[in-house]
Q: What sequence folds into this?
């Protein structure tokens, strides 16, 4: 049985080149993104004054008439 050495010159050079390539690609962290830059602020729609008014016809259409059609 023969004993092999893993430290040959080509293996070491290849390993060093691989490590250097990895450091050049991943050597520094990406630029930090501020939370203010992660969303867009959009103003809300104005509230309609008719939204809070009560309509008997609408209440009947939503609650009574639909149930009688079944």
A:
């Amino acid at each position: 049985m023969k004993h092999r050495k893993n430290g040959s010159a080509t293996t070491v050079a290849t390993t060093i080149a691989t490590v250097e390539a990895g450091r050049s690609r991943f050597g520094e962290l990406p630029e930090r993104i501020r939370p203010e830059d992660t969303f867009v602020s959009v103003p809300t729609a104005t509230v309609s004054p008719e939204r809070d008014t009560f309509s008997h016809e609408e209440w009947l259409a939503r609650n009574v008439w639909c149930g009688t059609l079944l």
